[in-house]
Amino acid sequence: ARDGETNWHVYNGSERMLSYLQDSVDWRKKTEQALLEGNFRLKYQPIVNINTGAVSGYEALVRMIDEESKLIVPSKFIPFSESDGNIGRIDKLVMNKALSDFPILLRQKPDLELHLNISAKSLTDPAIVSLLQQYITALSLPAQQIVIEVTETAAINQVNIGKHYARQIVELGCRLAIDDFGAGYGSLTYLAEFPVDKVKIDASFVRMISSSEGSSRLLSSLSQFCIGMNKVTVAEGVEDVDVLNMLRDMGINEAQGFIFSRPEDLSDIIEANFYQYDIADINATQNQKQR
Ligand code: C2E
Ligand code: MG
Ligand code: MG
Ligand code: MG
């Protein structure tokens, strides 16, 4: 299922319907238990400027810790949390943790951005906006370096409602990104109507550019459009150097993906103190592998 959406279309037929209902009860219990015990952890994945190789920021990505201390990826529990209403509690927990962590990152590289994922449902929760405000004030955080990622879904499809809440984020001085752009709902209305500073192009779209000329032309045009509109473009899920080079040629600004790094623990990032990739070296390493 697509991230951040109910994944119930994978359960068709009555047997599957029953198993969906069972799963949603189970995940709700697990999630509520984890919320009570604080059993969530954040990973951080770098976002890299593909022209300079500099790390421009980190995206906070939540994991649930299960009874055996294993980490559970969000695609397992977030779709259920969005249906049962627990998503707001998760987003608040993540916001608390990530905004408390942010000064530690800023001490190492003061211009880093912090990307936070907020469900479209949480965007309409006034408590989220005031929590953001409180942290910015209490910790003197650079608001313009906080990027709130919202996935384009049916929930913000009602442009007027979405716009109202989006504006509150922007009024705090924070920036707004559309996440998973091109993954489904893909409406150009967002780009025209929303106060969006960044467009994150979905991994499924990014991956198509090496095999489909149509996709690569489409992305090229989107990139040009964003340049004209003063929006930063970020390619998600970049694993391959050929794709990286195509993205750069198209004028895409930033990239995120296993080619640079998987999501990591904050302590490992701080210890490594590594904020500059060598793009020429990534090319050379890949060429060596091919030989
Ligand atoms: P997203 O915001 O689009 O995050 C990118 C996802 O792609 C992450 O998955 C990341 O680990 C994965 N990824 C990054 N680079 C690569 C790559 O090169 N190859 C592949 N195959 N995957 C890559 P993750 O961490 O499992 O998160 C999945 C989704 O869960 C996120 O998608 C986001 O929509 C949601 N999510 C994560 N944390 C939160 C949160 O705190 N709140 C909310 N509401 N949603 C969250
Ligand atoms: Mg995201
Ligand atoms: Mg995304
Ligand atoms: Mg995604």
Automatic annotation (TrEMBL):
Boundaries of every EAL domain copy: 24-277
Residues shown, of full length: 674 to 964 of 968
Name of the molecule in the record: Diguanylate phosphodiesterase
Domain of life: Bacteria
